[in-house]
TrEMBL record:
Cellular component GO terms held in the UniProt record: glutamate-cysteine ligase complex
Entry protein name: GCS light chain
PANTHER family: GLUTAMATE CYSTEINE LIGASE REGULATORY SUBUNIT, GLUTAMATE--CYSTEINE LIGASE REGULATORY SUBUNIT
InterPro entries per the UniProt record, alphabetical: Gclm (IPR032963)
GO molecular function: enzyme regulator activity; glutamate-cysteine ligase catalytic subunit binding
Superkingdom in the source lineage: Eukaryota
GO terms under biological process: glutathione biosynthetic process
Length: 273
């Protein structure tokens, strides 16, 4: 099976005509429909990944000469994702992270992957544990299965030193996951919560995080279901002479921070279609 992945490239690179892109599709359009885009085929065990990206150096290849750079990796799953598709998406995204962005210089230190966050479409943080997530169909047991499979696979890829986390988990959802994570599986270390909700966190969530040593970190990402505009994605894939696709399989976001100066030096989205 061939998997097609579209990349914005590093939107903070010196030759980019924009800073942080106002949207993922705007970044894809600027990078891929310009004259500087290129296509690379990455062979893998279960088929090939066709990667559409900027012709300039990839984000991790640009940064790998500096050991002071830390990466935050966030994997987005679409709404109503099935258990099978979520597990496959996590595996493909993690594999691409390690293999398609490997350093061309064997002696150069790779950036440190500080954290890996899993964000499920249809799941938005609420301090009301009784709220129903109509577009989130995975059971607590299935979420735990995705967690176990994904984090265990990450360890086999050499990413075991990262902190693993989830996004937008309420007290009950986080408690369900924590209680199901086995002792041999990487623990839940982070709950990524939208910055607009961070000012009024429920006491139950704060207490749960303290008890289990879980960091409650703010983010400014759009919800997974609103991350990629379907109409614009269909237009971009059509203009690239691909089969027009208005739905994505997963999105991998890479954010690079220079530790010493606490300076954002990299921002990239990879969209699997």
């Amino acid at each position: 099976m061939t998997l097609t992945v579209l990349s914005t490239g590093n939107t903070l690179r010196s030759d980019a005509p924009f800073a942080v892109s106002p949207s993922v599709t705007a970044g894809l359009r600027t990078t891929l429909l310009g004259s500087s885009s290129s296509v690379a085929t990455v062979p893998r065990e279960l088929g090939e990944i066709v990667l559409y990206t900027a012709s300039s150096a990839e984000l991790l290849e640009t940064l790998d000469a500096s050991s002071s750079v830390e990466l935050t990796v966030k994997i987005f799953f679409p709404g109503k994702v099935t258990l099978e598709n979520a597990q496959e998406a996590a595996q493909h995204a993690l594999w691409l992270l390690v293999n398609a962005h490997s350093s061309p210089k064997a002696s150069a230190p790779a950036p440190l992957v500080k954290s890996i966050i899993f964000s499920f479409g249809g799941l938005e943080f609420s301090d009301d544990d009784d709220d129903e997530e109509t577009d989130f169909e995975l059971s607590p047991e299935q979420v735990a299965t995705v967690w176990t499979k994904a984090t265990t696979y990450a360890k086999t890829l050499g990413l075991g030193g990262a902190e693993f986390g989830v996004a937008e988990f309420s007290t009950s959802a986080l408690q369900e996951l924590v209680s199901r994570v086995g002792s041999e599986t990487p623990r839940v270390a982070i709950d990524h919560i939208n910055a607009s909700d961070c000012c009024a966190l429920p006491k139950s969530l704060v207490q749960l995080s303290k008890t289990n040593n879980i960091k409650l970190l703010a983010h400014h990402d759009k919800p997974a279901d609103h991350l990629v505009d379907p109409k614009e994605l269909a237009e971009i894939t059509s203009e690239l002479k691909l089969k027009s696709v208005d739905r994505w399989a997963w999105v991998l976001k890479l954010t690079a921070l220079e530790k010493d100066r606490q300076l954002l030096v990299g921002n990239e989205y990879l969209v699997a279609v």
